[in-house]
Each structure stands twice: as C-alpha cells, then as structure tokens.
Design goal:
Chain B: One of its GO terms (cellular component) is cytosol. The complex is a heterodimer of chains A (about 400) and B (about 475). In chain A, helix 4 packs across helix 8 (about 185-200). In chain A, the strands form three sheets. Chain A has a four-stranded parallel sheet with strand order 4-3-5-6, sandwiched between helices. A two-stranded antiparallel ribbon of chain A has the order 1-2. A two-stranded antiparallel sheet of chain A has the order 7-8. Chain A is about 45% helix and about 5% strand. With about 400 residues, chain A is mainly alpha-helical. Among the domains of chain A are: about 45-215, Rossmann fold; about 225-260, no CATH class. Chain B has a domain at about 40-135 and about 195-310 and about 320-350: 3-Layer(aba) Sandwich (Rossmann fold), CATH 3.40.50.620. Chain B is about 45% helix and about 5% strand. In chain B, helix 2 (about 55-70) links the parallel strand 3 (about 45-50) and strand 4. In chain B, helix 2 (about 55-70) packs across helix 10 (about 290-300), helix 7 (about 215-235) crosses helix 15 (about 435-440) and helix 8 crosses helix 11. Classes of the chains: A mainly alpha (about 400), B alpha/beta (about 475). At the A-B interface, helix 1, helix 4, helix 8 and helix 9 of A face helix 8, helix 11, helix 12, helix 13 and helix 15 of B.
C-alpha cells in the first residue's frame, strides 16, 4: 500500500529521508534539501553580495551537487554571486582561485566528512584542528593572514546519503573515484565506525557535528607558544619547527628524524605542548610500530582531506608523497593541501632564496653576521631588503649556530 | 627493569618489565600521585567509594584500604565509605542470580571494613527532586592554596558539628525534605530477604521497557545510578564520590559521548573532578590506569571482584553506541598500541567551560550540565531545527509515532492520558534538557514511567518558566541565583 508524502500528503512517497526519517515525495524532498541549503548559506553568512565564488569541482558527487545547488540558489534567491567552476587536476585550489579572481572557495565537504574528521582528530590527538572546528574559533582570521583564499563549506550540514539522493532525483551525473590509498588511510577506520554509529542512531552524524562545535578546549592546549623557528622563521613552539626538523633528517640521511614519539601527535608546524619527557628530544630519532602510520606516506595520509581523497589524484610514490621530505618546490597540489603554516614555510623559503641566492646552508660559513653587514651585502646585490627579511637572515644565522651546538651535544 | 634484581613478571608498554614489588610500588605511587597532584581531597573528608564489583573499582577499594592502613608512610587521610548499586532488575538476572550476586557483594562490602551501603536501583522511585537541583556551593576562589581550602573545610566541619544550624548546608535541607516526604532511608528494601519490593522492580522494568534503543537505556541507567549515588552521598554527609573509571574506560567514554552529542561536557564526564552537583564532587582517581594494568594488579595481589552482567551482555544484534565505540577502540588499540593513550591525552586538553559569572546558567534537568542548546547562527543545531521545522509543515498531518503517547505500546499498562497531552508533555520536557539528554528522551515511547522526582522537577521548572514569561517585561535583570523555595 503506497505511503503518501508526509509533507504534501498528495503524491506517493518516493524515499525516506535519512536526516528526519520522513517519507517524502521527490518534489518535497528536493524542496526541503534546497531550503536547508539556503538556510545554511544565509545563517552562516557565507557569502557577500558581489563575491566571486570558486566552486571546487572534482566531478564527484559533492562538488556536482554543490555546483548545481549554488547556481540554483543564486538564481532563485539572488545572492548576487559570480560563480566560477574550478576544476584542478594537480594544481592548487588557491592558485586557481586567484586566477579567476575569486573571493571565496566553496568546497563540497558534507556532514559525514565533518563527523569523520572529528573522530579522526580525536584519535590522533590533533587539538589544533579540533579547536578550529568549534563554534568559538575565528574562522576567517587564519586563512586571510597568509594570503590564502578563505574557504567555506555550504554543504556541511547535509548528510552524504541525502546528497546522493538529491543528485539521483535531479538526474545529476558524476564520477566517483576513490583515492587509491584510501583503504590504507586512517580515515577508513573512522569511516567504518561512523557507518556503524549511524546504524545505531540515525542522528549520529549530526550529533558528532554538534559535539565538535561545542568542544571546550583549554586555552593553552593545541596552541603553540608562538615562537619562531630559528631556521626558517615560521611559527613554531620548539626552537626548530617540524618542517625544518624533517628536512634536517633528510639532509643527514635519517628519514625518521622528527617522526618519533612526541612529534606525531601534532600536525606539523602546529605544535602542542611537549610532554616533559619529550622536551629536548627533538633531534633524537625513534622508530616504533606506530611509525608506519605517521612515517613517510603515513604523514600524507594524515593530511588527507576527503576532498583530496575523492579526487583520485595521480598517486605519487610513497616517499614522494610527504612534502616535508622533499627539498624540491612543492607541487601546487601539495601546496593546496598543506597546512597554512606549511605554506608559509615554503613561501618564506622561496623568499629567503631570493635574498640569499641559495638555500641557507647548515654547515657552511657564509655571509657576514651583523645586520649592517647584511645590509651592505643586500645593497651589493641591488635589492631592497625589508626589515622582515633581515630578521629572517638573522634567525637563520642563529639557527645554524644552535644546530651546531645541538649536534655537538647529542651522540648519534 | 627498575630495581634490576627482582624477576620480571609482567610487561607494561613496550620495554617496561616489572617485578612484582616494583609493579606494586608503581601502582600505588600512581594512585597517590593522582590524589596529590589534584589536591581536592581534604584530610578528614568523607569520601564515598562507588563499587561496581568490576576490576577498576575493586582495585580502587584496595588502594584506599592500603593507603589508609596504619603502617603506610604518609597515610591517606580521609574517611571512606563504600556504596554498591544493585542493577539486577534491568540486567536480565533472575531473582536467584540476583540474590546470589547480592550476597557476594554484601560479603565484599563487609570485608572492606568501611561503612557500606547497598542500594537497589528501584530506589530511584523514592528519590527527592532535590537531587536534580544544583546545590550552590561556594567554590574556593581560583588560585587559593590547598592549605587555605583545607582550613576552610575544617572550619566548615566544626561549624556543622557545633550545630550552629548553618542554613546553607544543603544536607540539612535535604534531611528536612526527607522528613517532609516522610521518606525513610532504605524504605525500598523489602522486609524479607535482600531484594526490594517486587512492585518497584516491575515499575523499573516498565521504565526500561519504554526505552526503545539500547543506547538510550545505557544512558538512562548511568543517569539513574549517578543520581542514587549522589543522593546517598548527600544524605550521609559525604562530600566526595570516587568512581573507578580506568584510562581505557575514559577513552571509550570520550568517543562515546562525542557521538552522543555531549561534546560540550566531555571534561565533566571524564575529567578528574566533576562538580556539577555543587556540594558533592565526583573524582576519578583511577583514570590513568589502563585496563591492562588494573587486571594485572588484581591478579597478582588477589583483589576480589564480582562479575555481573551489564545491560548489553549477550545482546548481539543492534549494539549500542557504547558497545560500538568500545569494540572499535579495542580493535584499533590492538593495531596501534598508542590509541587509547592518545585519546586520553586529547581528553586531558579539554576544560570545563567556565561558568557564567553573572546569571545562574540554565542546567539540564537530567544531567545537570549547563545547557548547550543555545541556537548559534550556522550551527548544526540550527540546521536540525530548520529541518524539523520543514518536516512539520502540514498541521493537518496526523503526526507519526513520535507524537502519540504510548503509541504501539500494546497491552502494556499505559499512562491512560490522551495522546495530545503526551505530545505536549514531551514538547515541554525537551527544552529543559541538553542536546545529549534530549536524544535519550526522544528514544522513549512514553514519559510516564519516569520516576516521580524527574517528573515533579520538570513540572516545577515548567511552572517557573511560565511564571517568568508572564512577568518578563517587568524583570530588570536575570536573577543571580534561584531563591530557595
């Protein structure tokens, strides 16, 4: 006996909504979905009139639905947006967005992604990321600091299944390819748990989202004592930031350097408080069974956003995947995927290259030490050096001295 | 490994082999360090130990026993009591099994040498609604030294003993209320034998029968158990309750509560000290011991435990969220041995949200946590409300099962009230709860079987809210505290 749509009461129901358990007809479901999306856009104040929005499109279901939805809603409600579809193969999302002159990037992260991320961050102890997910976190501030285009997730309250239902009923076509490393990724575990939780309680996805927003973190946790890395000048809580540490490992032929106990719990560069027994252990290496997870390719798995996973980007070799172990200029894709702090590191390094003309050497004696001498040196090169860059030079000098001292103290 | 002479008998963590003596020392040291680091237990304070019969709480009891014994150097100085809550009615035990368990627990309690209390879960039906009220308790100002706090405590004790009739002492009020209600302690215990009156047991079964999902049953059980323990503590003058949650249990609880929408209260639910009830604080001294360490300790030093089935023992299909997370974490721990400790340490980085200094914040009726249901623009909660709103579009639509009271309850005794009042009662009840408790109640078919203390408190709050609404325009500012009425 046909069930009637509970919303309009006339047409026969075509589906049962995962979110509310209601039986709805096609039209009412589509209507409800779109209304909710509109509410998310307006209440979250995601866009301003006149904004150019780059819609990150991978061809997968989330971005397909997102693109369609934004276009429909923009036309229907008059957001006044200029929408650009941004399909990047291996390039950076930020770079692409800059090219089309976008003010914002809209990604297709859905509620399931958010829920998975919370679980994962808790399992990894990534307090910094947890903090960013709370309601109290300043959303825009961080991105605008380093010149990256601010991002938003208009679909973050939509259940993944509903997105598929929407695409199905509207006849939207998409390709879904999974990253070939997905089965090995840690995220897979969280994904399985989430599926089970959903089976036990339909609202589990939303409940996790709610929990994530209301997490109360200690003020000092997950926030670096914001000092500067003595090598590259980037934000770090230790004398040498994780990026430089890993680089150092590569230079010395110790690929596990900086990956031992105490380092892995933190997103590289965003340091938390070191445990008392970990202080001063920065340059000591230690390999444990867990290191496969946080080791070379594992670190990339750590950085994985579902965005990247679905794109099915061309797989790089395991060792290559880790941007930190490479001295080459990072590919645009990695730039986009990496933490803002990491991006700053690369930018700074590029800048330092411009000044110095070569990578600051660890062992070599180079330029003169004092500030005045450096200025003369720069003028000789016919460049205007800003105070900031001079600072960088000075800190690099300090870092080398510190490193030399450290190496003398440790036995390898 | 440590003393280099004794024969190693067990390995904790990679590369850490202990001999029996060193392990014992390590174990004891951890306990004392835990109490010493968070200096919240005052000398001479009455502390209630919550014993479940399981390994962690039994180990805790043993630690307290040893710590208090005269021979110990620097012995612990507080006055312990032990409590055990009998949950046999809902855990599927036959009366004989239940009696058997109770006898064994009685023996254990008596052997502990401390004043003990054996409470039946059925006694929830006799709780006063005061248990749901946050008893204001002047916390020592932050930064004050432990010494000052101890002095304050001793002073308070002397005052109470001298019978100056300190009207702020919540115990006095509760005693009054008990007398007013004509309630006697232990009234629920039936005159014959160990088991309580079967009528009460039946009521309890009905209460749990009205809950549809296992997850909600677990939550309800925890809630009721906590209320019982806290009530006993209050009535008997205990100011602290010690729970035996181990590190593993804490990690599981963290992820479980995340999934239950209780992210805002993780620090209270799993932290060392939980003072949401005001006058009685819950401490968890065992939270740094992994289940493995506790198990080894119990085995090596012969700590007696009593096994009893839980709510979800032998329930294979449709596991609760608690069980799912537990399975998940254990499986992951087998592959990555640092999982539990990482989760635990993440939990440590949480803090309880600082209480609003001005107004007395609204608290959840059931769990007494500050409500986290304020609608913030762009939040998940708001999106959910919008979805619900869109679902309710047709007023003529006879609302499906969730509206009618006792719909489909079948032959079971129903509340007898018309469906309309059932929906309304629920609609009145839910706003009094935090997000997590709302989910639990939503999984109940009918609110009638809830114990009287919950319903009367809900009624009281509803009446107060209506009152406030009527005079809203004349009120100048939020009251600083609920006046004692």
């Amino acid at each position: 006996m046909p069930v009637h749509c509970t919303a309009c009461g006339e047409r026969p129901a075509a589906l049962r909504r995962p979110r509310t358990g209601q039986a709805l007809c096609r039209a009412c479901f589509v209507g409800a979905f779109e209304k909710e999306a509109h509410a998310a856009v307006t209440s979250g104040r995601l866009f301003r009139r006149g904004d150019t929005v780059a819609v990150a499109a991978s061809g997968g279901k989330d971005s397909t639905v997102l693109a369609h939805l934004l276009r429909t809603l923009d036309a229907r409600h008059g957001y006044g947006l200029r929408l650009e579809l941004l399909a990047v193969d291996e390039g950076a999302l930020d770079g692409g967005a800059a090219m089309v002159g976008a003010d914002k990037i809209a990604t297709g992260h859905n509620a399931d992604d958010v829920a998975e991320t919370v679980l994962m961050n808790f399992l990894r102890g990534d307090v910094a990321r947890l903090r960013r997910g709370t309601l109290a976190a300043p959303e825009e501030a961080e991105s605008s600091q380093d010149g990256a285009v601010p991002r938003c997730k208009p679909l973050r309250h939509a259940y993944e299944k509903e997105i598929v239902l929407y695409a199905y009923f509207l006849g939207l076509d998409y390709f879904s390819t999974e990253c070939r490393y997905a089965p090995h990724a840690y995220r897979g575990h969280a994904r399985t748990l989430l599926k089970d939780l959903e089976a036990a309680r339909a609202s589990a996805v939303a409940d996790l989202g709610h929990s994530a927003e209301h997490l109360a973190l200690r003020p000092e946790a997950g926030r670096a004592a914001r000092g500067a890395c003595t090598r590259c000048g980037a934000v770090a809580s230790q004398p040498v930031c994780a990026a430089c540490l890993l680089l150092e490992g590569l230079e010395r032929g110790l690929p596990r350097l900086g990956l031992g106990k105490g380092r892995r719990d933190r997103a590289p560069g965003i340091e938390g408080e070191a445990e008392p027994w970990e202080k001063g252990r920065g340059l000591r290496e230690e390999a444990t069974k867990d290191d496969w997870l946080y080791g070379a390719h594992g670190l990339k798995a750590l950085e994985e956003e579902p965005w990247q996973r679905r794109r099915g980007h061309k797989a790089m070799g395991a060792e290559q995947e880790n941007p930190h172990l490479e001295e080459r200029q990072p590919g645009a894709l990695e730039e986009e995927e990496a933490e803002p702090q990491q991006r700053r590191v690369w930018q700074l390094r590029r800048r330092s290259q411009n000044i110095v003309g070569e990578e600051p050497e660890v062992n070599g004696e180079q330029q003169p030490g004092s500030l005045e001498e450096e200025e003369t040196h720069h003028r000789r090169r016919g460049q205007e050096a800003t105070g900031e860059e001079l600072q960088l030079e000075a800190t690099v000098r300090q870092a080398e001295a510190w490193q030399r001292r450290q190496r003398r103290n440790l036995d390898f | 490994m440590k003393c280099k002479e004794g024969a190693p008998v067990l390995v904790i963590r990679v590369g850490d082999a202990f001999c029996k003596a060193c392990f014992r020392e390590y174990f004891v040291h951890k306990f004392r360090a835990m109490l010493g680091k968070n200096r919240v237990i005052f000398p001479g304070e009455k502390v209630l130990l919550a014993l479940s019969g399981g390994p962690s709480s039994s180990a805790m009891l043993r630690q307290v026993q040893e710590g208090l014994s005269r021979e110990t150097a620097k012995r612990l100085r507080f006055v312990p009591g032990v409590i055990y809550v009998d949950e046999g009615a809902v855990c599927g035990q036959s009366p004989e099994e239940r009696e058997d368990t109770l006898t064994r627990m009685q023996a254990l309690l008596q052997a502990s040498g401390f004043p003990h209390h054996l409470i039946h879960l059925e006694e929830v039906f006799e709780l006063p609604s005061s248990i749901l009220q946050h008893a204001p308790h002047a916390p020592s100002p932050p930064g004050s030294s432990y010494k000052a706090a101890v002095e304050g405590f001793i002073h308070q004790q002397r005052q109470g003993a001298a019978g100056t009739g300190d009207t702020m002492a919540p115990e006095g009020q509760v005693q009054e209320r008990l007398a007013v209600l004509g309630m006697q302690e232990g009234a629920a215990a039936s005159p014959e034998g160990l088991l309580p009156a079967s009528a009460l047991t039946e009521e309890l079964r009905q209460l749990f029968g009205a809950v549809t999902t296992l997850t909600a049953k677990e939550e309800l059980l925890q809630m009721l158990r906590t209320h019982l323990i806290l009530h006993t503590a209050r009535v008997r003058g205990y100011s602290k309750v010690m729970m035996g949650d181990s590190c593993t249990r804490v990690a599981v609880k963290l992820l479980t509560n995340l999934s239950l929408g209780r992210g805002a209260f993780l620090a209270l639910d799993t932290g060392f000290m939980d003072d949401r009830h005001g006058d009685v604080a819950v401490v968890r001294p065992m939270r740094e011991y992994t289940a493995k360490e506790v198990a080894f300790y119990n085995r090596l030093f012969g700590v007696p435990t009593v096994f009893m089935p839980a709510l979800d023992t032998k329930v294979l299909e449709k596991p609760s969220i608690h069980r799912l997370v537990e399975r998940f974490l254990y499986a992951l721990q087998a592959e990555f041995p640092s999982t539990v400790s990482t989760v635990y340490r993440t939990g440590e980085k949480l803090s309880a949200t600082p209480a609003d200094t001005t107004a007395e914040p609204q608290r959840c009726l059931l769990c007494l946590c500050v409500l986290d249901t304020g609608v913030v623009e762009g939040s998940t909660l708001q999106a959910l409300l919008i979805s619900e709103e869109l679902s309710r579009k047709r007023p003529s639509d006879p609302s499906p099962t969730r509206g009618g009271c006792c719909a489909g309850a079948g032959a079971r005794r129903c509340c007898g009230s018309p469906p309309a009042s059932g929906t309304k009662a629920r609609a009145d009840f839910l706003p009094l709860l935090c997000y997590g408790c709302r989910l639990t109640i939503k999984d109940m078919t009918c609110l009638e079987p809830l114990p009287p203390y919950i319903r009367s408190e809900a009624e009281r709050r509803r009446r107060r809210a209506t009152m406030k609404q009527e005079i809203q325009e004349y009120l100048l500012e939020d009251e600083a505290a609920e006046p004692k009425s």
